[in-house]
Design a protein that fits this description.
Length: 178
């Protein structure tokens, strides 16, 4: 019976991964990007909590805040699903942007690492510095891929720079051989 190599972990994969492609890392937008969902959670609760405060003699009105919370939770879950299933996959060959739009619509954009000219990031002031989010801009010949509200933009920037530099170094070696 052949002995299994326990040190070797299975390589994670994703839908649409090519045979000779290695996954480097996955990132998504910061939770602050779903602030609209947080507002939609709180507003129905707050609005439906007003009638029991005004008409305190009617006990059935005290159920309204629960209804407001349930409605707010449904609206929040919709925004959470959109946030959770919108990801950025970086491999040794490309960046894949998977954006969830609604429950059943998904947009996928692939950008080859060899087509990237430069990468920059921006941290939008005090709130971005405190909550560790910013904007990442990936410049290409065709246009710019702007990703707002990226969690830990400095770390993602450094990882992307390394991935692009590795691709450029491999291309340089390939061009020297040919």
């Amino acid at each position: 019976m052949p002995k299994k190599d326990d040190d070797q972990k299975p390589q994670p994969s994703f839908d649409g991964q090519r045979e000779n492609e290695n996954l480097l890392f996955i990132f998504r937008r910061h939770m602050i990007a779903m602030r609209k969902g947080f507002y939609l959670l709180v507003v129905p609760l707050a609005v439906l909590a007003i009638p029991p405060l005004i008409w305190q003699d009617n006990l059935y009105l005290f159920l309204l805040p629960l209804v407001g919370f349930a409605v707010g939770l449904l609206l929040f879950m919709y925004h959470f699903i959109l946030w959770y299933y919108s990801i950025y996959i970086v491999t040794d060959q490309r960046i894949r942007q998977v954006t969830q739009n609604g429950f059943f619509k998904k947009d996928v954009i692939d950008l080859r690492l060899s087509k990237i000219q430069s990468i920059s990031y921006n941290i939008p002031g005090f709130s971005g510095d405190v909550f560790h989010f910013g904007t990442l801009v990936i410049h290409t010949f065709v246009g710019d891929l702007v990703i707002h509200h990226v969690e830990h933009p400095v770390k993602i920037y450094n990882k992307l720079q390394s991935a692009v530099n590795d691709v450029v170094d491999k291309q340089g070696d390939y061009e020297e051989v040919n």
